[in-house]
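Hi R.,

Here's the chain you asked about this morning:
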Amino acid sequence: MIEPRGWAAGGGGGAGAERQMLARDPDQSPAAMGTFGASRFLLGAVSCTFFLAVNSLYSSSDDVIELTPTNFNKEVIQSDSLWLVEFYAPWCGHCQRLTPEWKKAATALKGVVKVGAVDADKHQSLGGQYNVRGFPTIKVFGSNKNKAEDYQGGRTSEAIVDAALSALRSLVKDRLSGKSGGGYNSGKQSSQESGSTDKKDVIELTDDSFDKNVVNGDDVWLVEFYAPWCGHCKNLEPEWAAAAAEVKEQTKGKVKLGAVDATVNQMLASRYGIRGFPTIKIFQKGEDPVDYDGGRTRSDIVARALDLFSESAPPPELLEIIDEGVAKSTCDAHQLCVIAVLPHILDTGAAGRNSYLEVMLKMADKYKKKMWGWLWTEAGAQSELENSLGIGGFGYPAMAAVNARKMKFALLKGSFSEQGINEFLRELSFGRGSTAPVGGGAFPKINAVEPWDGKDGELPVEDDIDLSDVDLDDWDKDEL
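And here is the predicted structure, written out as tokens:
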């Protein structure tokens, strides 16, 4: 069975130990401890009052919004924003370790997703309202604020940001399709409402078929080992089925979701050390299997599968803009297209140009999870494109990131280097950075040009002057 994901508090004896026991076991309430135990618990709570007052984990200078029973309804419940809310206790060791990561995530998500925190030890009524039994507990409040979902992802700032953006993407998709109850767990909700548990995209694996399909195959696999009698497995089933369909569509079948009945296929269960149900493992060609430790909702599973897909995929192509078809198809097919305007070949030679292209290729590989388009052109070859992006015939190399759907762009203002471009793209990935409308409000005219042949440039050949009919002897004579 899956263990609860709530973190128990760390600490020593006395009141801390009582708190640790309570956080670890929800049934260890003061009433369950008896009169003496309850007295010790209450005494411990009182003795910590001064400690908590001077050791709050967050301050007004942080991007984490402090929430209380007074402002919670207005800030969260009545808000149209997506919220990630941590319920914590200042004495909790796990909460203290999460604090810097939570702050970093809040700063990265500022203006995109709201990140809040509730001192649930101080505001126990608010924690009780959302069934908080251990610390820290993280809840996601999507469009249906009355049905907060448990966050079950990693505790690093990167994992928190990825989960927040995944939840935001699901919320927006649900709004786009007209659903009113969308949010973090929209896959679960829709599958329950429809009553569908169609598993046609989940591939059943056995002792006989496993090696052929998974171990010796070229695709990435997420495999669930389950037992038919397991309650947690039954809860996971509709999420797994919904995720399998979505992953199949988005990865064109390159990432597959499978299932193994471990009670029947005991050789496989023994081979991979399956000791509880459900256990999910990730299989990639040439690598040892690793445990999947993410959330159990459709959106969590899909997000991890897409990460695996992008990690195993080759970097995106870096294309030269040689005609309108290349430029428009690349920019129309991606959320952003990154366009570099490189110096003329006579200014850099082949070696210089290749060094610029190498930097772009490294950045394309680094940001391949974003699935952006990558283009380049030579200075002067696409003058209308340069003018529309404010590059304007000087300052090469230059770079712009274009959103063709909104007809907006952002211009690289730092150096054309790995560090400079990385800082530029990182800001864009967090939704920050200044933007401007594309000149003319439409995609500029693109000229058809010959692709670069990979060689150094050649100076144009000058015409020879025939001096055979010029009398040079007359040059020294003065004319009257």
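One quick note: The first helix runs from residue 15 to 24.

Cheers,
M.
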